[in-house]
Amino acid sequence: MRFETSTIKDIAKALGLSTSTVSRALRDRYEISEETKKLVLAYAEKVNYRANPIARSLKERRSYSIGIIVSEIANNFFSQVINGIEAIAYDRGYHVIISQSHESYKQEKLNVEHLASRSIDGLLIALSSETQDIDYLRNLYGKGLPIVFFDRVPEDFETHKVIANNFKGAFDATEHLILSGKRTIAHLTNSENLSITRERLKGYQAALAKYNIGFEPELVKYCQHGGMHSAELEQAVKELLPLNPDGIFISSDRLTTGCIMAMKKTNPGVAHKIAIAGFTNSNLVELFSPSLTSVKQPAFEMGQVATELLISMIEAKRPVTEFETKVLDTELVRMQKPLGNRFL
In which element (H, E) is residue 87 found? Predict the structure, then answer.
């Protein structure tokens, strides 16, 4: 049985009005009397009338949909960003279509091109850890597709970008470990391709330099897939532990939570002796064992700001030529569990 909905023509026929009058009444146009508007709206509610989004998009040449590309929806940070995106998008009359790259350039490119073929009005994207060539995005952007980058952004792409203050977040976390008495501080991080990796590495190095601690490259371990592959993460931990670090600064959500599990699996006796500070937006940080000091990003706000910027591009009457990079502050949340005689 085919589901059928009432149309403007059905309402017009039932009320003995023209379709144009019904259409204007539904849009609350000034030229329609209040009495007629009430009549039309009451009948529309009675028959459960809903505007046809396909007809609307054909008429206005817009789909009222926004594409989103993230590495993984299950990631605490990205799930919170998506919540922020949806909060703004739905309020402004847009639907969102979410795709995951799984840190794969090939998957990212396929997803973006599929979304573009479905006539999305704009794209919000955090680049995958494998992505180096963004010519495919330049091509779509050059053809008129509005694009806003967030979190993981390219350097040489003229559009709006929304990021966290990665340098300060990394500096604060590393300084916290140093002030807690740590001197051999390792750094577990993402792919070297990513902007967040470079910015957080600089923050880590700056904190070491401030306290006259030499930077040792062997204490930095890169996970090209950001902890999505457990074997890769476990290998990085196995390479770090023989260097006897007394602290580890970790640069991303999945790596931070995954590192604790990898340490317990690799060397349970050592796991509780190493202080950890890392980026994570998990709401369960207080349950982690060993405890960790976390750097929280304003993920929800990042999603909101990025969406506002994208919609401003979509709805602009003229081509947008001036862009900005919004930098949002992070928050250092110190753990309250004592380690020895000190709180970290």
Answer: helix 76-91
The DSSP code sequence of 9-47 is: HHHHHHHT--HHHHHHHHTT-TTS-HHHHHHHHHHHHHT
pTM, 2 dp = 0.81
Residues linked to residue 96 through DSSP beta bridges, in sequence order: 66
Beta bridge mates, 191? none
**pLDDT tens-digit series, residues 61-120:** 567 999 999 999 988 899 999 999 999 999 999 999 999 999 999 999 999 999 999 889
Q: Which residues contact 205 (CB under 8 A, 6 or more apart)?
A: 215
Residue 116 in contact with residue 90, Cβ under 8 Å?
A: no
Classify strands 95-100 and 65-70 as parallel, antiparallel or unpaired: parallel
Main-chain phi, psi angles of 58, to 5 degrees: -65, -40
Closest CA to 252 of 207, 305, 299: 299
Question: Is 72 found in the same domain as 198?
Answer: no
Radius of gyration of the chain (CA): 25
Q: List beta partners, residue 342.
A: 339
**Segments forming the whole domain that contains residue 171:** 166-296+332-343
Q: Is 270 found in the same domain as 219?
A: yes
Say if 1 falls within a structural domain.
no
Identify the CA nearest to 148 among candidates 140, 174, 270: 140
User: Residue 225, class by beta-carbon neighbours within 10 Å (0-12 exposed, 13-18 middle, 19+ buried)?
Assistant: buried
Which amino acid, residue 197? T
Domain match, 158 and 187 both: no
Taking residue 311's Cβ as centre, other Cβ atoms within 10 Å add up to: 20
Q: Angle between the 166-179 and 195-210 helix axes, to the nearest 10 degrees?
A: 40
Q: How far apart are CA 332 and CA 297, in angstroms?
A: 9
